[in-house]
Specification:
This protein is α+β, with helices and mostly antiparallel strands and 139 residues long. The protein has one domain: Glutaredoxin. The chain is 29% helix and 15% strand. It has a 4-stranded mixed sheet with strand order 2-1-3-4. A two-stranded antiparallel ribbon has the order 5-6.
Amino acid sequence: MIVIHHNPNCGTSRNVLKLIEAAGYEPIVIEYLNTGWTRPQLLGLFAAADLTPHTALRKTKSPAAELGLLDPNISDDVIFAAMLEHPILVNRPIVCTPKGVKLCRPSERVLDLLEQWPPGPFAKEDGEVILDSAGQRLQ
């Protein structure tokens, strides 16, 4: 089973979902901006992906600056509480598979979590090719 915590408004998130589906998987898609996060859920994802609130914080196109969360002295507890209140503060997409959990930014990081890859060629959202016509990783 594959789960993607997805923001459909994000090019990287859309590309990761497209890559997963092109590889033949039918992931469970959680649009976390609609569902929000629970404390146990977010703690579990961060622990599994080896993330901290600081490393998972979405710094651009989010209210992070307005909330004072970009101050290097701000505690993880304060950032975490803000993430629960404002789901947009969590960077995305976070993908969970039997091989592990990762923040898949850049999008090709999801390849490390998949048993099978899509046929190539496959490009990132910016047009950079990540799988050649033989389905081999270029990076």
